[in-house]
Amino acid sequence: MARFKIGPQWIGDGEPLYVVAEAGVNHENSLATAKRMIREAAGAGADAVKFQSYKARSLASRDSPAYWDRNQEPAGSQYELFSRYDHFDPDDYRELAMCAAENHITFLTTAFDEGFVDELDEVLPAFKVASADITHHPLLKKIASKQKPVLLSVGAATLEEIGEALTLLTTNGCPQVALLHCILNYPCRPEFANLRAITALRRAFPEVVVGYSDHVPARFNLLQLSVAWALGARIVEKHFTLDKTKPGNDHYHAMDPEDLRLFRQQQGYVEDLLRAGAIGNSANDETARAFARRSLVASRRIAAGQTITPDMIAVKRPGTGIPPREMEPLMGKRASKDIEEDTVLQWDMFES
Fold it and tell me: What tens digit of pLDDT does each residue of 242-264 get?
C-alpha cells in the first residue's frame, strides 16, 4: 500500500483526504492578505496552505506567451503577469511559515528556482514541483538533494516523462514522491478534467500516492474533488482566494473559504458513504439481517409425531428460525413435540 508523509501526517489509503489550499500569489503582494489567507484556510479545514515563490526575471523571458484564458486574465505574456506578483522575498515566506505554524496548518510553497529551494528549505516539510517543471531536471536534482518528500504535478506530461522525473528524484535523495494529476487549463472546463487519469496513474505507478491538482471552477461544493478522492486521489490541491469575484490571476477558478468549508462537510459524508468496500454481513445490519429475512413457520398446528409435508409450512419473517433454503431437508422429518400455528420453526422441534 502506497504511503506518503508530510510532517507528522500520513497520507494514503485508509487515511483522511489531505487538502492543500493553493494560495499561490492571490495575496497580490500583500503580506497581511497572505496571513489572512493562512488563517482562513486553516479555519475552513485545509491541511496545508501553499504559496508560489518565484521572480519573473528568472522564470520567464519577456516574450513568453500567455497560456491562460485571456478573457479572465488579460496579461499578454507570462513575464508581464508574473512581474505583478513576485514581490515577496525569502524573509516574507519565513514570516508566512511562522503564521502557518501559529494557526496549526502546514506551510508549503512551490519554489520555482534553485535559490528559493535553498532559502526556504528550513521551513518546508516537503517540496512542490509544478507540472511545467517536470522536465527541469536541474531543479529536480536540487530539490531531491534536500532529502524531503516531493509533491509532483504531472499536467501535460507523458508516462515516460513522469517515470524519468520519479527516477531522477528518488536516485538523488528524495525519500518519497506523490504524483498529482493536473490539467494545464486556466480555467479547466469539467469535460476536460479527465479524472479517470487518476486511476491510470495509480495503475502505472502503484508504489506512489496519487493526488489531484484542480483548475475546474468551484461549483457544486467542489464535487470534482470528491470524485477525485473516490477514484483514488489521496491529496487534492485547489487554488484558494478570499474573493472569487476579483479579476485576473487565479481568483476566477479558485475556491474561497466557504467553498472549502462546505467541501470538507461534503467530503466527510462521501467518505462515510464509501467507507467499508467489503461485500457481506456487517455489524451495522445484523438486526435487519435477523428480522427482515424469512424463516420456515408452521402454517397450522402440528402434533408431536406428525411427519412434515409442504402444506404444513409457510415462509414468513423474522429470519430467526430454519431458513427457507432448508425447506427440502425438513420434509419427511417428524415433530418431536406439539408446534402451534405461526411458530417460527427450529431444528430442535424435530427428531434427528
Answer: 999 998 889 999 999 999 999 99
